[in-house]
Inverse folding.
């Protein structure tokens, strides 16, 4: 396993896996927002790409396989919509509208719907006896260029760090993990550029099943982005509330 990928996987395990464990039926819903954007001077955001139908079909097929083995996992869709994170960071809440304008200019000159991205393998984030399965995407020149442009576009609105108040919270989950706060703080540079591991999360299952599933030959396929948005981050680093959608060519 490459160092960048290994660093990424273990950096997010504390957050991503806990999220899916705590958002099963009966847990707090992502729509029960207690801290909408504007309630704090700083907002934690995630600028991301929405995949096309090809990726959606593959992701949901993988998710169905995992659910058949572990029904207590989560179903893709709704609060678990497949997406590709491009950039997470803390920004000034008062400057969000200006940030959207700057990011929109990036997408005006890019043409992501024409890109052919390649899904190459599964990996999982382990937390015995379960694991969070990810479909890893090849970090193409297009993705890396877009991320660099987004970093530059959002830089004027960035703040060095944030607190729990920068995130969306829920009544049943009012606290933000310190590891998540730190993860967003160091996303640039620790999880960007050469350290970027683009992926789509596809399900939660037992390690025993995921070991068998991931050992099977992976049939690589290509797909394209279908849209782009900026979300307000919630606990565990999840894209909880859509703040703005961008026109994507």
């Amino acid at each position: 396993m490459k160092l960048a990928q290994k660093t990424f996987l273990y950096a997010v395990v504390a957050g991503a896996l806990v999220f899916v464990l705590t958002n099963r039926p009966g847990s707090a819903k992502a729509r029960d927002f207690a801290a909408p954007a504007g309630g704090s001077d700083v907002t934690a955001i995630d600028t991301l790409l929405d995949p096309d139908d090809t990726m959606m079909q593959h992701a949901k097929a993988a998710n169905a396989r995992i659910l058949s083995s572990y029904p207590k996992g989560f179903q893709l869709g709704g609060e678990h919509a497949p997406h590709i994170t491009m950039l997470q960071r803390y920004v000034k809440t008062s400057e969000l509208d200006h940030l959207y304008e700057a990011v929109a200019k990036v997408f005006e000159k890019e043409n992501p719907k024409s890109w052919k991205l390649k899904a190459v393998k599964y990996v999982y984030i382990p937390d015995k006896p379960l694991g969070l399965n990810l479909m890893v995407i090849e970090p193409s020149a297009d993705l890396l260029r877009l991320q660099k442009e987004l970093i530059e576009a959002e830089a004027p609105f960035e703040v060095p760090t944030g607190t729990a108040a920068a995130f969306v919270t829920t009544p049943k989950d009012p606290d933000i993990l310190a590891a998540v706060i730190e993860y967003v703080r160091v996303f640039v540079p620790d999880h960007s550029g050469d350290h970027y591991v683009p992926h789509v999360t596809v399900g939660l299952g037992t390690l025993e099943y995921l070991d068998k599933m991931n050992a099977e030959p992976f049939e690589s396929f290509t797909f394209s982005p279908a849209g782009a948005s900026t979300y307000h981050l919630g606990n565990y680093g999840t894209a909880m509330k859509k703040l703005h959608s961008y026109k994507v060519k």
Strands lie at 42-51, 84-92, 117-127, 130-137, 199-206, 221-223, 225-233, 239-246. The chain has a mean pLDDT of 86. The chain has seven helices and eight strands. The first helix runs from residue 3 to 22.
